[in-house]
Amino acid sequence: MATRNQPSYRPPQRYQSRHLPFGDRRDAPFYGKHILSVKQFSRDDLTYIFEVAHEMREMVLRVGSFDLLKGKILANLFYEPSTRTASSFIAAMQRLGGSVIPIHEVRYSSVTKGESLPDTVRTLEAYADVIVLRHPQKGSAELAARYARKPIINAGDGTGEHPTQALLDLFTIREELGQVDGLTITLLGDLKYGRTVHSLARLLSMYRVELHYVSPPQLRMPREIMEEVAQAGIPQHEHTYLDEVLPITDVLYVTRVQKERFSDPAVYEQVKDFYVITPEVMARAKDRMILMHPFPRVYEISEEVDADPRAAYFRQMEYGLYVRMALLAMVLGKA
Ligand code: ASP
Fold it and tell me: What CATH number should be reported for the domain whose range is 163-317?
């Protein structure tokens, strides 16, 4: 007999547990896992991800595309604008032989009718094997993951984190400078609202680095992140002026002032062009250093700097493709 708490109906067995398609390696690290925050990685995990990313790079350079994820489907669910993250996930999936459901204009989806994030996620996982989610609310990826049986990859949750960007940033540093340990790394710009620097500072705290934070006083790195980094024993220094630290910097990571996060437009106007990297600024930097930026850039790096071989931001975008190929292959049990 059915009672209030014990309904007699049971869905057919085949719908109750995770579907493990033939050929998936269940023992593969990260198989079926969500990627929500850089806090979930150990240094060994990072080494492994970068090895796989490196192999992806070799394969793309050699054969372009291959069928590792043939038959797999990615749902790309973006509630905020994106150029690089959205298109590199699509390219990553397609270069691995998989396909994509692109939902980049949520206003044309049922979100406009008031559908909640958990319902949208549970809908998409009925069709796809993995969901990439970008959302304006901090914590949204974790919320989605609470409801999802398929892996959720956080592609930016408001001012929270952007873990796949931080992984590609670190991969860029490794590939360009050979190692991360021993480097002096300067994060500059909007450290308060910039989610990429939140993830990157946390990830870098797993290495033996010295961190410098250069920002206007209104846009300092959140205390909570500085405390986490301090617990890892990493020296951190705050500055308002870049010149104090530029001559000793090995990696200068510049960020955009995040206009969309300001409640008072007057405050944005005060800080929006506080720093501009020009060839004159680069002349005071080390010969062997790299200039990075997650893009889009607005005012912070002048286009004349693009020809400088130390400007690594366009190469950084390409490294992102390989890291995202590695992550997709890993969560889908093929790496
Ligand atoms: N594209 C990066 C992000 O989504 C950086 C930025 O928007 O400034 O966080």
Answer: 3.40.50.1370
Residue 20's CB is within 10 A of a number of other CB atoms, namely 11
| Mean pLDDT of the region 158-166 | 97
Instruction: Identify the active-site residue in 72, 134, 135, 174.
Output: 134
Among all chains, which residue has been given the structure tokens 């680095």? 209
The CA 67 to ligand 1 mean position distance, Å, reads: 30
Under a CB-based contact definition with an 8 Å cutoff, are residues 123 and 193 in contact? no
Q: How far apart are CA 12 and CA 27, in angstroms?
A: 27
For the chain, residues classed under CATH 3.40.50.1370 are 13-161+318-331, 163-317
Q: What is the pLDDT of residues 290-305, one digit of tens each?
A: 999 999 999 999 999 9
Give 72-124 pLDDT, tens digit per residue: 999 999 999 999 999 999 999 999 999 999 999 887 788 888 899 999 999 99
Dist. CA 320 → ligand 1 center (Å): 13
Spacing, Cα 134 to ligand 1 middle (Å): 11
Residue to probe by mutation, ligand 1, list 193, 196, 261, 272, most atoms within 8 Å of CB: 196
DSSP of 267-332, one letter per residue? HHHHHTTS--B-HHHHTTS-SS-EEE--S--SSSB-GGGGGSTTB-HHHHHHHHHHHHHHHHHHHT
Q: How far apart are CA 31 and CA 329, in angstroms?
A: 9
